Amino acid sequence: MEGNDSHELKLQEKKAEDELSKLPENEKAYVQPALELQKQRNTLFLTFLDELRALEYKYDQQYAPLYEQRSQIIKNAPSFWLKVLKNNPLTTTMIFEQDEELLKHLIDIKFFSEQGSDNFRLEFHFTENSFMENTVLTKVYTMGADDEVKKGDGTEIKWKGANLTQKVKKTKKRGKNKKAGIKVEEIPSFFTFFKSVSADDDDEVEEDSEDEGMGNMMEEDYEAACEIRDEVIPNAVYYYLGIRDEDDMDEELDDEHPDAKKPKGKKVDGSGNEKADCKTQ
After folding, report:
1. pLDDT score, position 6
2. Lowest-confidence pick of 47-51, 105-109, 165-169, 243-247
3. What domain count does the chain have?
4. Domain for residue 272, yes or no?
5. Which pick of 151, 182, 222, 261 has the fewest CB atoms within 10 Å?
6. What global pTM score does this model have?
7. Residue 115 is part of which domain span?
């Protein structure tokens, strides 16, 4: 968001002013005017970001009717979105055996951007089924300062029967008069994606855990969301046909435009270059 970008650039300018004050007078003579030009450039850059977001939002609105037409065409196609998700190299790792029957009822995935910000919402639409009461599952992402993702608010799934994200186990009797108990374990599932996550939760995990693999739930969740937003939804029919090869597309782009970046991520850093796609900073 523009306010966050402005805040970041103001901090950089303040640090630059502090360092400038430490320089000898003869060095200040040429660094001071150079810094003033940098500030002018920063002002233009913020205008660029504002116009870029407006342009992205404009075309998101123009894509939407095309996606809606596609939805009407393929809504009765058996397992269309299940096949799409299984043919994407990232989302296929999120799908497990117990998920597939419910994912056969997935009839559309929609993306909604928010004007003037980088916040966005994903919607997963399902037909009536025997697994859950919900017909729409959502995930809403809120961005914070410095374009960091702060949280992803998901839908609470109302299961009709077994919870696909959990496994119920009976525990053995311990002691003469003890009864067998029940233990509920979390298991990997595509539908854990709809649990709410927060960057604050990750910070707590990092402080409390010595495991280097812990504390990245928000990052992994956001990466999956961006892949669905930037790859799966726009190129669904390519994934269904199994012809989408991102490495080949990168090579084609490099051949045609050696200095170009793949137009997947939407974030731009303070130098005017694209940031790494869909990563928390």
Report:
1. 82
2. 243-247
3. 1
4. no
5. 182
6. 0.77
7. 2-256
